[in-house]
Structure formats: C-alpha cells, structure tokens
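Researcher: We plan to redesign the surface later, but first we want a full-length starting point. Tokens attached.
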C-alpha cells in the first residue's frame, strides 16, 4: 500500500475571495458614512425676570485654606456656628466652591462642619 501525500498547504483562494468581497462592500458603504449632522432648532434662552434668593449656603474654600461665606471671610473655628445659623434660613443645604489648589483637608473640614450642623445636602463645585 502506498501512503498518500499529506496536504501541507492551506488553500487561500476562498480567504482572498472573502476579503475582496468585504473590500467592495466597504468601498460602497464608505461614501454613505460621510453624512451631515441633523439640523435642529435650539430653543432660545429665556431669562427669568425674578431673581430668587439663593437657597443654599455658599462656602468658598480658597487655595490658601481660608473659608468665605457670602464673600465674607470666616475663621475655621467659627465655621460650624456660621453654618448652623444659616442652615435655618437656607433649607437646600451647602454648596462648597473650591479653588483649583484648595487642599482636601480644608474641604473635609467644611463637610464635617456641615454634617455637625445638621445639613444633609452638601454639593461640591470646583472653580
């Protein structure tokens, strides 16, 4: 009995056919992808005539570690008392505004003071 020669080569003809078909499909689809965006009408900005008073306590934490409430500098030891006094008037909580270089420790001190003052809603904004 004679051994048959084993098939050592991979036939790449079907693979080439598939790639050519995919290339043709991509060439047909590619011009369709270059579509313009949707033309949407953006609603006009309407400014409210009445400016409501802010309902949050705005606290600024400066990069040098100082605290300000309503543009008035507050020492760290008075922070809790100021928040307690204002929490009765401002029911929506505390908005902490921080400068870029403000330390995390200074921000945490404000958050702790707000929590100890009974404020449940604390927001943080970086300027």
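Model: Full-length starting sequence:
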């Amino acid at each position: 009995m004679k051994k048959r020669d084993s098939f050592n080569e991979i036939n790449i003809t079907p693979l080439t056919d598939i790639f050519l078909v995919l290339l043709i499909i991509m060439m047909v689809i590619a011009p369709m992808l270059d579509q313009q965006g949707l033309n949407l009408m953006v609603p006009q900005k309407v400014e409210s005539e009445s400016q409501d008073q802010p309902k949050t306590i705005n606290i600024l934490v400066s990069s040098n570690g100082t605290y300000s409430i309503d543009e008035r500098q507050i020492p760290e030891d008075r922070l809790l008392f100021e928040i307690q006094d204002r929490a009765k008037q401002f029911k929506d909580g505390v908005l902490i505004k921080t400068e870029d270089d403000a330390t995390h420790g200074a921000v945490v001190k404000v958050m702790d003071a707000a929590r100890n003052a009974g404020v449940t809603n604390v927001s943080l904004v970086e300027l």
